[in-house]
Amino acid sequence: MVVLGDKEYYKGIDKINFEGKDSDNPLAFRYYNPEQIVAGKTMREHFKFAVSYWYSFGGNGSDVFGQATQTLAWNEFREPIQAAKNRADAAFEFIGKMGFGYYCFHDHDLVQEGQTFTQTELRLATMTDYLKEKQAASGIKALWGAANCFSNPRYMNGAATNPDFRVVARAAAQVKLALDTTIALGGESYVFWGAREGYLSLLNTDMKRELDHMGAFLAQARDYAREQGFKGNFLIEPKPMEPSKHQYDFDCATTIGFLREYGLEKDFKINIEVNHATMAQHSFPHELEVAAMSGMLGSIDANRGDPQNGWDTSQFPNNIQDVTEAMLVFLKAGGVQGGGVNFDSKIRRNSTDMEDVFLAHIGGADVFARALLTADKIITSSPYESLRKQRYSSFDSGKGKEFEEGKLNFKDLYAIAKENGELELQSGKQELFENIINRYI
Question: CA-to-CA distance for 85 and 126, rounded, in angstroms?
Fold first, then answer.
């Protein structure tokens, strides 16, 4: 029994164990075996699964069209500190029963924002002490922290990119507190999500000035955290739109270009969310590859969108084909650098039983574990790698190799093209690659 508070919130549910793919128990892992070694690491080490504080312990099924459908027993108290402690008790009970090692949070997930900045600071300090006790008792850690600089009306025109300097200063103060909290809780990374760092209309936006301000803001946040002894990664989470019309961290390529433009590439990496990749008209594997190519694959927010909806539905991952293709990139890149896999996902509005959040996380962990196993077999036992290598074999020797080594100029290429004459088509073997994926799933 895993209960770390005075009250058990998830009654009747014990610790979730691995029982294998033939198990009929819906409250058991079929593929996620934390201690199983795959490609030289245990699954626990590969994934470092984390639970999102905001959805799993703050979401209640409400949306813009309807009221809450899910009862959160830990919110019975109206007094903010007691309510926050109740939520922490529920969170650590749930994470412990899942057997995961981490959680992720925004500052105001931990405790309700106060009426004044001073009151907010005191509340965060109180909850930081309480969470440190919970972590020490359970062994559960903070994967990363972040500041919610997008919900409060003061940030309607952005935080670091706000045209009002007073708001920029307030955002900096809030990020300082969030950094302090993350450092005190031993957070392994710190995330910036620029939800309103963008614009609704270019008519009233000085984009260059806003980007300069954001670059300076992130550099100063980095310097402050380093001065406090923080040694982890700073992560930026790309998203193309929603709530802003256009967000400056549109996708991985845009974000990496921004980081290099402002000299932040040595300290910052990318936190890639699956649904955000979809909204940017990319695939999840594409965004992983773009980040990995630049050595910036920092962490993953695991979820999915709905192909029939154009917004961020944040559903739990369940598509084995898509995740397998992502795990091929993941394994070839050596995994994430300093981060983990955070289930930034929420159960559906009509999922109203307490066990539903367990079923959702079990399914998410199993699809990632099954995809990892499949990707490892594809890499080690199929012709996948040799076929990819063969496709580029003309660059492994001769003139092709000289081109990659920078030994040929454009006139050389012109002469080679004339000598080669007309060329035979070389198949990309797309269907064969797809069949290999399906064969090993």
Answer: 10
Catalytic residue selected from 46, 89, 106, 249: 106
Spacing of C-alpha 150 from chain mean position: 18
pLDDT (tens digit per residue) in 256-306: 999 999 999 999 999 999 999 999 999 999 999 999 999 999 999 999 999
Task: Write down the residue that tokens 């895993």 correspond to.
Answer: 2
Q: What is the mean pLDDT of residues 401-412?
A: 98
Q: Is 106 part of the annotated catalytic residue set?
A: yes
Dihedral in degrees, nearest 10, Cα atoms 19, 23, 24, 27: 20
Task: List the catalytic residue out of 46, 89, 108, 109.
Answer: 109
- pLDDT value for 4: 58
CB 130 within 8 Å of CB 184: no
DSSP 155: G
What contacts 182, CB < 8 A, 6 or more positions away? 142, 144, 145, 190, 230
The reply, when asked if residue 197 is annotated as ligand binding, is no
HSE-up (13 A, CA, CB side) for residue 50: 25
- In this structure, the number of other CB atoms found within 10 A of the CB of residue 344 comes to 25
CB-based burial of residue 292 (10 Å sphere; 0-12 exposed, 13-18 middle, 19+ buried)?
buried
Q: Map out the domains of the chain with their CATH numbers.
A: 17-381 (3.20.20.150), 385-440 (no CATH)
Phi, psi values for residue 160, rounded to 5°: -65, -25
46 is catalytic: no
Classify 218 as helix, strand or coil. Answer: helix
Does this model's pTM top 0.70? My answer is yes
